[in-house]
Design brief:
With 290 residues, the protein is α+β, with helices and mostly antiparallel strands. Helices cover 36% and strands 27% of the residues. The chain is built from eleven helices and 13 strands. It has a six-stranded antiparallel beta sheet, with helices on both faces. Helix 1 crosses helix 3.
């Protein structure tokens, strides 16, 4: 069965299992970096916010021997975990005073998202762009958010400068930074690592779009004070960055090659942030392209 045939078969199976209680529709969504992904939009009549469950991973399971009906049950189980229990009314979304404490941001690569950036408010930083979302809900299973468009920003009668200021405050409250030794993180997962190497992971509490933590006000400065030296910032994905103290390496080109190689081999195309490292100077409090 081809991927297209599989998505149609899975949609049909989920619809049959859901019956008249749920609406199930197959869609193609443009993700970060211009990547198109297929998903099922599942919704209930009384709720106007619907999660999209993407299907590429389920196709891999099908190719490994799983049956379509088994995967349909799994999709519905995921839906039960991530679904919304109440609607978001449109007037509430467009009421800036009510919604502003839920405005957050993410980092994306500029050159891969040029067309998308024309439709949304964004703020440049180095070769990246800050883009804005409404954080609808945070649960133990993840986050639900809504992209802020140019149209929404105009209805709010605000500009990018104000969005950035309010989002910076909200990020620290809703998605605080988390800084860990990579040895501790990997050992918790049962992976043996070289204890002599000093490397660190910086992300947010939910480990979702946590690369944005590298521009939290004062965040890198605090880490520089802790490390007592300058360091390199390796964008391992949109979800996290890896920090390497300067004394561990003086070969920026090698770090750039490593980032590009890991992105090509291990990172989903829509989760790539950049193919090179950054350098943080703690004395000047300045982040620069490596």
């Amino acid at each position: 069965m081809t991927y297209h045939q599989f998505t149609e078969a899975l949609e049909k199976s989920v619809k049959e299992m859901a019956g008249c209680l749920l609406s199930v529709e197959l869609c193609n969504n443009k993700k970060n970096n211009g990547i198109i992904r297929s998903g099922l939009v599942i919704s209930e009549q009384r709720v106007n916010v619907s999660p999209t469950i993407y299907l590429e991973g389920y196709y891999e399971q099908y190719q490994s021997g799983s049956q379509v009906d088994e995967l349909a049950k799994e999709v519905l189980n995921v839906y039960e975990k991530v679904k919304f229990d109440q609607s978001w009314e449109e007037p509430e979304i467009f009421n800036y005073e009510k919604i502003k404490n839920k405005i957050v941001f993410r980092l994306v690569q500029r050159s891969r998202n040029e067309e998308f950036l024309k439709e949304i408010p964004h703020v440049p930083i180095l070769d990246l762009e800050i883009i804005f979302y409404i954080l609808l809900e945070i649960t133990k299973d993840g986050m639900a958010s809504m992209q802020i468009s140019n149209e929404t920003m105009e209805k709010w009668n605000v500009d990018e400068k104000e969005l950035l200021a309010i989002a910076m405050m909200n990020m620290k409250k809703h998605l605080p930074a988390r800084f860990h030794s990579i040895q501790n993180v990997l050992s918790e997962e049962g992976i043996a690592v070289d204890k002599a190497a000093r490397m660190y992971i910086l992300t947010n509490e939910k480990k979702s779009f946590g690369a944005a933590t590298m521009i939290y006000p004062g965040c890198l400065n605090q880490i520089g004070t802790y490390l007592k030296e300058n360091f390199y910032v390796l964008p391992s994905s949109v979800h996290e960055v890896i920090l390497v103290p300067e004394k561990e390496t003086d070969d920026c080109m090698n770090l750039n090659e490593m980032v590009a190689s890991i992105n090509a081999a291990c990172v989903l195309p829509e989760e790539i942030l950049e193919n090179h490292a950054y350098y943080y100077d703690r004395i000047e409090d300045r982040l620069a392209i490596c």
